[in-house]
Amino acid sequence: MSYFPSIGTIAYEGSRTSNPFAFQHYNPEQIVAGKRMDEHLRFSLAYWHALTGGGSDPFGSATAVRPWDRFSGMDLAKARVESAFELMTKLGIRYYCFHDRDIAPEGSTLQETNRNLDVIVELLEQHMKSTGIKLLWNTACLFTHPRFMHGAGTTSNADVYAYSAAQLKKSLEVGKRLGADNYVFWGGREGYETLLNTDMKLELDNLAFLYRMAIDYAQEIGFDAQFLIEPKPKEPTKHQYDFDAATTIAFLQTYGLQEHFKLNLEANHATLAGHTFEHELRVARHQGMLGSLDANQGDLLIGWDTDEFPTDLYTTTLTMYEVLKNDGLGRGGINFDAKVRRASFEPEDLFLAHIAGMDAYAKGLKVAARLIEDRVLDDAVDRRYATFREGIGADITGRRTTLASLEQYALENRPIVNVSGRQERLKSVLNQYLLEE
């Protein structure tokens, strides 16, 4: 059975094509910076947006028309699996991601919930074997159900903490069975609404212990996935503990967990934290903790997580610049944690949105590779910091100075000559590279 019978396999047709169901820039076989494009761009489908998202928002009900709408319960869950693999196969997407509650409905007990999950996991396993599509990462949904109103790993209720641990244990087992490359922790409710009733230290201690137990259990069952934490500053809590890359890295270092985790960074979460996406990537890269990407963008005029498909070439270029400088993402990938707009309700829009995002990242990859090859930004940085490569600057970077020796140098009253940072020129050059074919 085909859920998208009117749409065939999406192919690369080049930048001059007028076919909306074709790639203009994403050519998986093209060699860029020494590797095939599809090796750089390990694209992944986000199960929650593509298969379970209905287009609802805080002010309106679902609008999406989907070919699996006629089903319900476990039949709906099975239909979504079939739809997901048809969608990925036609788009040429080789990875996918899910929360446990995305793929199977919750039952009246944890036992029933786990049985539902096992049925769908077996079906996923069959489709993965027949298509070669792999699981980039999975995670546990520890935020949607009312039981998590006070959090999961940071809850004020020990019974909820125990339930969260049990759900996490099952999720790790699912990841191992399906061969997930990574496992993600997203603290959707791991934060606070007010400090008036919050024991912050206890909550953080308990969260770190939950992570430690997950590490131990993964080792026990032989699940060798890369563990990832996904920072976000707010929504749904007022302040989430994994606020941004720097805060998350500090948390991991505080609890001695930094050797076991990298970061899964999302563009829209970066802007909610008051950062650019490339800032977050640079922070993680410098700490050796850049693990994977959630590819989307936010509307800067709207103050919440809009999860739009990425189409901003400026951002995708600077994103891929950081990824290339990181020598890739290793076991990570580029997951389209993005949803079609509420008014883009037809099934075809799922294809058009992914095509737009894949092309935007492909174009960004090609431009970033040229920027690095031509040393456009590297040379600008080298010129700006040239004074630290000789004389007193070399002494400073060589850590051969003291406050007294630097004072002695300054008292010689040498003329201080600054040079322009040429920011506007660099942005103009970047625009020129973006406009080139």
Range of helix content:
40-55%
Shape designation: globular
Order of helices and strands: EEEEHEHHEHHEHEEHEEHEHHEHEHHHHH
Structural class: alpha/beta
Tell me the β content.
Answer: 5-15%
Number of strand segments: 14
Stretches where pLDDT is under 50 for at least 5 consecutive residues are none
Helical segment tally? 16
Distance between the termini: 40 Å
Rg computed from alpha carbons, rounded to a whole number of angstroms: 24 Å
Q: Quick one: biggest sheet? A: 8 strands, parallel, barrel
Averaged pLDDT, please? 97
Trace the largest sheet across and list its strands. 5-6-7-8-10-12-13-14
Structural description of this entry:
This protein is α/β, with parallel strands linked by helices and 437 residues long. 46% of the residues lie in helices and 12% in strands. The protein is built from 16 helices and 14 strands. It has helices spanning 37-40, 47-52, 73-91, 100-103, 110-131, 158-178, 200-221, 245-254, 267-272, 277-286, 313-325, 348-373, 376-384, 391-397, 403-410, 423-435, and strands spanning 11-12, 22-23, 31-32, 35-36, 43-46, 95-99, 134-139, 182-186, 191-192, 226-230, 239-240, 261-266, 290-294, 334-336.
Strand and helix map with partners:
Blueprint lengths: L10 E2 L9 E2 L7 E2 L2 E2 H4 L2 E4 H6 L20 H19 L3 E5 H4 L6 H22 L2 E6 L18 H21 L3 E5 L4 E2 L7 H22 L4 E5 L8 E2 L4 H10 L6 E6 H6 L4 H10 L3 E5 L18 H13 L8 E3 L11 H26 L2 H9 L6 H7 L5 H8 L12 H13 L2
Parallel strand pairs: 1-2, 5-6, 5-14, 6-7, 7-8, 8-10, 10-12, 12-13, 13-14
Antiparallel strand pairs: 3-4, 9-11
Keywords:
single chain; 437 residues; alpha/beta; 8-stranded parallel β-barrel; two-stranded parallel sheet; 46% helix
